[in-house]
Design a protein that fits this description.
40% helix; 159 residues; 4-stranded parallel beta sheet
């Protein structure tokens, strides 16, 4: 049974799709693709159906990551049951996640950088225009998440 991860941000056109594609790349490079199902979603309806924002596409492309075929979608109540981890990019995302899922009995709601030694929000490049910082933070968070899953025994250590 794969570990199902849903990355969440405001519009699902910058940070959460970047995290989705970065994490997919990391698990593929680690030989763990069969152990994961990874997707992303928005807390808002503003960008529904839209592709990844062009500067985010360029940043992913710089690192050989293809994000064609992405269409922004909004989180649904069913996502709580459908995913093992619901991972927001910042405190505002977490606020809306907790409004959607006010009770988290299985401890599925997290912020991506909470898995690092330096918990903080991931910078929103929609406002900062600094896609490089967002790229670094997402990579840091995804690597820490992968390490966390190995350390907790959710993933085989030998792969």
């Amino acid at each position: 049974m794969p570990i199902k991860v849903l990355f969440i941000c405001h519009g699902n056109i910058c940070r959460s799709p970047m995290a989705k594609y970065v994490m997919r790349e990391m698990v593929e490079n680690a030989g763990l693709s069969d152990h994961f199902y990874i997707d992303s979603a928005a807390t808002s309806t503003e960008e529904l159906g839209n592709p990844v924002y062009p500067p985010a596409v360029r940043k992913l492309s710089e690192h050989g990551i293809d994000c064609r075929g992405h269409a922004a979608r909004q989180i649904t109540r069913a996502d709580y049951d459908d995913y093992d981890l619901l991972i927001g990019m910042d405190g505002e995302n977490m606020y809306y996640m907790k409004r959607r899922w006010p009770v988290d009995p299985e401890g599925k709601l997290h912020l991506l950088l909470d898995f690092t030694d330096n918990p903080r929000d991931i910078s929103d490049p929609w406002y900062t225009r600094d896609f490089e910082t967002t790229w670094r933070e997402i990579n840091e968070g995804c690597a820490a998440l992968l390490s966390h899953l190995r350390e907790t025994g959710a993933l085989p250590r030998s792969v």
